[in-house]
Structures are given as structure tokens and as C-alpha cells.
Design goal:
Helix content: 55-70%
Largest sheet: none
Protein name: Heterokaryon incompatibility domain-containing protein
Number of helices: 3
Pfam families: HET
Number of strands: 0
InterPro entries: HET, HetReg/Transcr_Mod
Organism: Alternaria tenuissima
Strand content: under 5%
Length: 86
């Protein structure tokens, strides 16, 4: 899986808001056309559904922390280069 954005219809679309849901459904072709990778989960909720969503949330948290760590490292490297270049 890529380290980019995740689009999960069930979580990203307010299922109770019929107007929002209709608007988002119209945009789905664009979302999927622009996706690097698409994973589809069809069917009813099962006993393992919560585990899958917990995994997705954990994966997102890890990616965000890794990106933050990388930004901090890059910032430190830039500062180090700035002061050692003279």
C-alpha cells in the first residue's frame, strides 16, 4: 500500500446526510480515476470489521508520525548544513 491518502467511503462520507452522500457519489469516479491503488471491500459488516478499521486508523497514525519525523529530520539537516557551510 502506498503512503498517501486514504479514501474510505463509509468514513469519508456522512452516510446520514443524503445530500452530501449524493454529491460525494457523483465525485467517486474522479476519486477512483486519480487513485494510485484501489482496494474494495464489499459486503456486510462482519465480526472482523472493527479490526480492519482499527488497522486503518493505526496505519494512518504511523504514517503521520513518520512524515512528522521526516520533516523534523529534514529541518535539522537544513539547519546543520546552514551552519557548517561557512
Amino acid at each position: 500500500m502506498c503512503d498517501g491518502r486514504w479514501w474510505i467511503d463509509y468514513l469519508c462520507i456522512n452516510q446520514a446526510d443524503l445530500v452530501e452522500r449524493a454529491e460525494q457519489v457523483r465525485l467517486m469516479q474522479q476519486v477512483y480515476d486519480r487513485a494510485h491503488e484501489v482496494i474494495v471491500w464489499l459486503g456486510d459488516q462482519s465480526s472482523d470489521s472493527d479490526r480492519a478499521f482499527n488497522f486503518i486508523k493505526l496505519h494512518d497514525k504511523i504514517i503521520q508520525e513518520a512524515n512528522s519525523d521526516e520533516q523534523i529530520r529534514r529541518s535539522f539537516d537544513l539547519q546543520t548544513d546552514k551552519y557548517t557551510a561557512h
